[in-house]
Design a protein that fits this description.
alpha+beta; Creatine Kinase, Chain A, domain 2; transit peptide; 456 residues; nucleotide-binding; Glut_cys_lig_pln_type; globular
């Protein structure tokens, strides 16, 4: 997340929290696509992680990017921690271990999204190459231990890193050693949100399989195709998972509010200060009786920041965030928003996607989600292989993109961005399996070549 919310308008009731979500509804003509992707910086000499400080560190990269694109610096005290495009709406931010993230602007088409991605890559290369580092697109850092991974100077991350070991075994791995690509998409109404949330949750394991790309840990195969996804199974189960309640009768904004109110808080921010309240209740803050800020009412900022610390497979804000995919090579980054845009922004495709999943039980959905990190396309649900299911899902998305009929200057519609997924399905192999084949073959059981062959 590039920047914490700074709206100090008081919120005093549960109804106001529900209304906050309702205000996210948009007419379909106003629907937009926001793509976020993370990548690992590494030194070109030695393939080591890049620290924040130093003449050739992350701070220097941010300062160089700021000089190049004239975006507004995002500061925490005297420390630059990101950049914001105050005109277009995009932002650059740092994840806890130095993962460099572009939070893309809200755009109309995948053509625009992919142009944004390519422009960002060009700018990053222009600044980073003279500093002596490059970027790697994988779901998990393939080489470095937690101890070797740098820590970025952000107050919220210090609070999270202290809390994570208390609630799961993989929280620090999630924070410091994983990367994702996700897309944020809009809804038209409460009913539209519920349908899209259900489709997104049920089919999120499909995206996990299609983008599985994290088979290495500390220089060796880890036994998984998406270890990033496996990590989320024991990071903090109070704030992650498949949200089975979303499929129950009565699901809507109110039900999600009740869920979010019961997720323990991490922090309260007042001014520039982060107050560690990890494990405490937002309900106390809403009632004006939180012991860390006695007498303070909750604000819009408090609510929005709290929602940003909830990590289900699909996250509801004033839009829906698809969170199931590993970070990957540049050629795959535009495929993720293309997949979900084709499913969500065409009503025929959305109906077809729901038809695939609506008969599954909560237990079947959970088993698929649990199996996919290890099995990929070989996982099964309701007697079907993930490979067959993924083929159907990608075909439904392709049809939706064709019907959207947004064309580029060469007359091509958005379905062309699904080509990397269709190639994986044709081969019957996830990106991780292709990496493992190279590791066992041409790479002679070393991960070092990934820093050359798969770098941006």
């Amino acid at each position: 997340m590039a920047r914490d919310q700074i709206d100090t308008q008081p919120i005093e009731s549960r109804d106001e929290l529900v209304a906050w979500f309702e205000a996210g509804s948009k007419a379909p003509s106003k629907f937009r696509i926001g793509t976020e992707h993370e990548k690992f910086p590494f030194t070109l000499k030695g393939h080591e992680p890049v620290p924040y400080e130093g003449a050739n560190g992350i701070r220097a990269l941010l300062e160089g990017m700021q000089a190049l694109n004239c975006w507004e610096p995002i500061m925490e005290g005297e420390t630059i921690i990101g950049l914001a495009d105050t005109v277009g709406g995009g932002a650059i931010s740092l994840e806890p271990g130095g993962q460099f993230e572009l939070s893309g602007a809200p755009l109309i088409t995948i053509h625009e999204t992919c142009a944004e991605v390519n422009s960002h890559l060009d700018q990053v290369r222009e600044v980073a190459t003279p500093l002596g580092f490059g970027f790697l697109g994988l779901g998990m850092s393939p080489k470095w231990t937690l101890a070797e991974t740098p820590v970025m100077p952000k107050g919220r991350y210090k609070i999270m890193s202290n809390y994570m070991p208390k609630v799961g075994t993989h929280g620090l791995d999630m924070m410091f050693r994983t990367c994702t690509v996700q897309v944020n998409l809009d809804f038209a109404s409460e009913a539209d949100m519920v349908k899209k949330l259900r489709v997104g949750l049920a089919l999120q394991p499909v995206a996990t399989a299609l983008f599985a790309n994290s088979p290495f840990t500390e220089g060796k195969p880890n036994g998984f195709l998406s270890f990033r996804s496996e990590i989320w199974r024991d990071t903090d189960n109070n704030r992650a998972g498949m949200l089975p309640f979303a499929f129950e009768d009565g699901m809507g904004f109110e039900r999600y509010v009740d869920y979010a109110l019961d997720v323990p808080m991490y922090f309260i921010k007042r001014g520039d200060a982060y107050i560690d309240v990890a494990g405490s209740s937002f309900r106390d803050l809403l009632a004006g009786r939180h012991p860390a800020v006695p007498g303070d009412s909750a604000t819009v900022s408090d609510w929005a920041n709290h929602l940003s610390t909830i990590f289900p497979e699909v996250r509801l804000k004033r839009y829906l965030e698809m969170r199931g995919a590993d970070g990957g090579p540049w050629r795959n980054l535009c495929a993720l928003p293309a997949l979900w845009t084709g499913l969500y922004y065409d009503t025929t495709s959305l109906d077809a996607a729901w038809d695939l999943a609506k008969g599954w039980s909560a237990e079947e959905r959970q088993k698929l989600r649990d199996d996919v990190p290890r099995l990929g396309f070989k996982a099964e649900i309701a007697g079907r292989s993930m490979l067959d299911l993924a083929r159907d899902v990608v075909e439904i998305a392709r049809a939706g993109l064709v019907r959207r009929d947004y064309r580029d200057s060469q007359g091509r519609d958005e379905s062309r961005f699904l080509a990397p997924l269709e190639a994986s399905l044709k081969a019957g192999q996830t990106p991780a399996e292709l990496l493992l084949a190279r590791y066992e073959g041409a790479w002679n059981r070393s991960v070092e070549p990934v820093f050359v062959e798969d770098a941006y």
